[in-house]
Amino acid sequence: MNAIVALCHFCELHGPRTLFCTEVLHSPLPQGAGSGDISGQNEQAEEEEGGIQMSSRIRSHSPAEGASADSSSPGPKKSDMCEGCRSLAGGHPGYVSHDKETSIKYVSHQHPNHPQLFSIVRQACVRSLSCEVCPGREGPIFFGDEQHGFVFSHTFFIKDSLARGFQRWYSIITIMMDRIYLINSWPFLLGKIRGIIDELQGKALKVFEAEQFGCPQRAQRMNTAFTPFLHQRNGNAARSLTSLTNDENLWACLHTSFAWLLKACGSRLTEKLLEGAPTEDTLVQMEKLADLKEESEGWDGSEEEEKPSSQPDVVEGQELSKSSPETSLMPDCNSWNVAHRRLSVFRSLRHMRQVLGPSAFRMLAWHVLMGNQVIWKAQDMDLVQSAFDVLRTMLPIGCVRIIPYSDQYEEAYRCNFLGLSPHVQIPPHILSSEFAVLVEVRAATRSSLYPTLFDDEQSLNKYEFIVTSGSPVAADRVGPTILNKIEAALTNQNLSVDVVDQCLVCLKEEWMNKVKVLFKFTKVDSRPKEDTQKLLSILGAAEEDNVKLLKFWMTGLSKTYKSHLMSTVRSPTSSESRN
């Protein structure tokens, strides 16, 4: 994260001052940050923490070096600084942490070495301890502008037995130019900076109580009430933060905390590049998640009523999956989650085609693409579930309605994928219907066991698959164009399973775009049939199977897309343009 974190202090003698700041460097270290080789007894102590290599680099400087550094530094002169305004000694080069993962350096010192950064930090420091203060003078606040950057500031008090009011005023500020990023990081920064403040206040409180116990200042000040306040403190007006907390390693600890804060805050939010508009599957998933959230809120706020007494709880769970097919899209809500299966029997469409055979697979895939009901009868629930997981990849998410396993037949309007136990009776008109296909999984005889190609799949060796339908697909039938392309991809052994999956995504998106055009042409614009036929010819979907496929896939369009088209048509500007 390209930001600067700084600790500021309101000095009673010199006003707002920057005590300590940590910045991110993507380039070689500046000269004032302690460049050069360090060896011997002054070699830095290194430690690893969260992927950051910390180097506390301290070396002795001659008075000439200290003078030259002070003269070139944009910070205040030594004469304008007291113990309360100073953090690092004059010969201290600062602290540096190296992030090995990103090759970024986190550098800490009292003031930024760059004059422009020094000016920005100085102005933020003054504003955080003067005019930009929340009620009570202690707490977080946000301010800034495009020119001087945006600031998250958290002011707080540190106990001091020698200070006016027995406390001193500090602030921790985070400065960056990205306003949106800083605002989105508010909860994270507030929690972590509040933790740093609590630690500082806790250490200072222990020192304060020990000093008050040894020499109570309140009674002493009451006895010298008429003595000028600055004189009665005997020159102890300025005390360093290390003295207030009794922690000699305070600045090293603050450097570690600030460096981690910058790294963690930059890692928690990532940018995601979206190329083009979201796909229909993405929109449908978002809509289904929103519907599930509303349903869950309704269930939490109401009591359970009108439970059917004639059906067990298991059937209620099936009804939930039937009425909410979107549960099959989300692993956390799906009762038959892939992660909880004992075995994923069908690994891919190519695997299923090898198991069922080319002709049986083509018949099954044709019915899936046409929107007909696909019924699997098997004793092994995992087998049925894996089959549905593989077959559903050929359809848009909005067209998928699954009842994974049931003890009774369900009508086609409720689901287009239905899993049944072997003893369930299917109505005769369904078995003879051209709008349904049945896959029966039976125990395989010894002579029909699958060849050694599937020896690693022990579950497949136990079954034989019989695919029947009232409308078998003829071998010489052309079929929908997308089915032919899917089979061509599956039979191409040069394509891996992952590549075939990406081909499926592209094919579905291509045909969903045709569905969108057809929907707008027929449902929104209400064009005549002659024009529709011409459009289908242009789209390359004039064949009967392609038309059926487009009509079925039209049911999978998202509500967002449909409402957007309808609102566009109803708007006055669109009507004027059409006239």
TrEMBL record:
Domain UDENN FLCN/SMCR8-type: 86-558
A Pfam family: Folliculin_C
GO CC terms: centrosome; cilium; cytosol; lysosomal membrane; nucleus; spindle
Localization of this protein: Cell projection, Cilium; Cytoplasm, Cytoskeleton, Microtubule organizing center, Centrosome; Cytoplasm, Cytoskeleton, Spindle; Cytoplasm, Cytosol
Compositional bias ranges of the Acidic residues kind: 297-306
Quaternary structure annotation from Swiss-Prot or TrEMBL: Interacts (via C-terminus) with FNIP1 or FNIP2 (via C-terminus). Component of the lysosomal folliculin complex (LFC), composed of FLCN, FNIP1 (or FNIP2), RagA/RRAGA or RagB/RRAGB GDP-bound, RagC/RRAGC or RagD/RRAGD GTP-bound, and Ragulator. Interaction with FNIP1 or FNIP2 mediates indirect interaction with the PRKAA1, PRKAB1 and PRKAG1 subunits of 5'-AMP-activated protein kinase (AMPK). Interacts with HSP90AA1 in the presence of FNIP1. Interacts with HSP70, STUB1, CDC37, AHSA1, CCT2, STIP1, PTGES3 and PPP5C.
Family: Belongs to the folliculin family.
PANTHER family given in the database record: FOLLICULIN, FOLLICULIN FAMILY MEMBER
Name the record gives this protein: Folliculin
Organismal lineage: Eukaryota, Metazoa, Chordata, Craniata, Vertebrata
Gene name per UniProt: Flcn
